[in-house]
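PROTEIN DESIGN WORKSHEET
SECTION A - STRUCTURE
LENGTH: 397
TOKENS:
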């Protein structure tokens, strides 16, 4: 944890320092006001770390949750501003390089910009960046607290009994119930899911950020989730940061079946398939007896039935494909949540969002039913997924 705080503070210092260095001088503030604004920078650096530090020591309360709101929104604003500055500086560097190249090619050379005009441009640009990123932050917060959209997908499954054609799975993932996602939001999501009347519900990890003791009342509404056949849960990485054994017990108490490198045969009386679940892709690093092994999950399963796997991280797809899984349901990525993290998420995961065919194994990556960290979603809404299994034979007709 000490290493985490050192690295986090280092990165936050760079982000906030660059924003201060590139924006504050350009605003033309009076000396007292400029000193005041510079004084906000170190506060903004440590603000997101304060609630994390308390929670890492088992201290959870409403005051710390309010610090989380303030710190995470501040972090989102500074991150957006930092990348806006990089984009602006890159654009001006390209323009400057283009002018130099044009000069070498004999095109007329532009006179240097007058210092007063340069100062005016810098001030307008600085104010413009703050206006854009401030508006984007406000819009991102608004989007994040809205209820998730419902995405419906038909997925052909080879070998699926015709009697199972039209079988529905409601997938929810990455609630991150904790400092800023509370029970009121959870209750509304439960109502959305129940209106879909699914055959089964799959909750693919990262349900919580915090202890059972503090969050039990916020998580309690998931008990009211209703499915014709059953409700199934598999762990995400954040369960391991929050006390995985206690959360598995609590989720079980709330009516879910935990698939911990295990499987169940799902039947509607007219056909069947095997539903497996693996623990988080990196679970063994924290809890050695959790293996995240699709082969182990389907050990002893009927060989003639299609296999569907619940696996929090998309990275499980490689092992899933080797054991003949027909469909993997994942989350973890949040779809990137907001720019520019989309690019980092794409580099870190084989699939980021939506439905993909991985060498004959379908994988669907849910964009998250909640959000994590900064309560921002820009261009990437949270979602509930209703997956309808289709018999490949039926689809050919």
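SECTION B - SEQUENCE
RESIDUE ASSIGNMENT:
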């Amino acid at each position: 944890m000490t290493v985490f705080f050192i690295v986090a503070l280092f990165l936050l210092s760079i982000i906030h320092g660059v924003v201060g260095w590139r924006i504050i001088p350009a605003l033309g503030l009076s000396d007292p006001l400029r000193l005041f604004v510079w004084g906000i920078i170190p506060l903004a650096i440590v603000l997101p770390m304060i609630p994390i530090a308390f929670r890492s020591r088992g201290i959870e309360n409403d005051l710390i949750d309010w610090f989380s709101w303030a710190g995470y929104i501040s972090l989102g604003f500074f991150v957006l501003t930092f990348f806006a500055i990089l984009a602006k500086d890159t654009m001006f560097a390209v323009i400057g390089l283009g002018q130099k190249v044009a000069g070498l090619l004999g095109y007329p050379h532009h006179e240097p910009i007058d210092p007063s005009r340069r100062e005016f441009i810098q001030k307008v640009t600085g104010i413009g960046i703050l206006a854009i990123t401030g508006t984007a932050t406000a819009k991102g917060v608004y989007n994040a607290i809205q209820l998730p959209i419902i995405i419906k997908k038909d997925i052909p499954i080879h070998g699926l009994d015709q009697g199972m054609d039209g079988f529905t799975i409601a997938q929810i993932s990455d609630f991150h119930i904790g400092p800023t996602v509370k029970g009121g939001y959870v209750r509304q999501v439960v109502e959305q899911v129940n209106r879909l009347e699914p055959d089964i519900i799959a909750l693919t990890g990262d349900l919580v950020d915090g202890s059972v003791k503090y969050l039990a009342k916020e998580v309690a509404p998931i008990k009211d989730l209703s499915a014709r056949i059953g409700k199934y849960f598999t762990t995400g990485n954040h369960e391991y940061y929050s006390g995985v054994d206690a959360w598995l017990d609590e989720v079980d108490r709330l009516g879910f079946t935990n698939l911990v490198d295990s499987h169940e045969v799902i039947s509607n009386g007219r056909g069947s398939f095997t539903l497996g679940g693996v623990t988080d892709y990196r679970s063994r690093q924290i809890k050695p007896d959790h293996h995240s092994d699709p082969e182990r999950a389907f050990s002893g399963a009927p060989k003639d039935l299609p296999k569907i796997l619940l696996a929090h991280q998309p990275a499980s797809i490689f092992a899933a494909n080797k054991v003949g899984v027909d469909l993997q349901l994942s989350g973890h990525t949040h779809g990137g949540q907001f720019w520019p993290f989309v690019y980092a998420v794409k580099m870190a995961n084989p699939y980021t969002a939506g439905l993909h065919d991985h060498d004959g194994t379908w994988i669907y990556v849910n964009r998250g039913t909640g959000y994590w960290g900064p309560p921002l979603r820009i261009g990437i809404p949270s979602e509930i997924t209703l997956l309808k299994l289709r018999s490949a034979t039926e689809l050919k007709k």
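SECTION C - NOTES
The domain at 148-396 is CATH 3.60.21.10 (Purple Acid Phosphatase; chain A, domain 2).
The chain has 13 helices and twelve strands.
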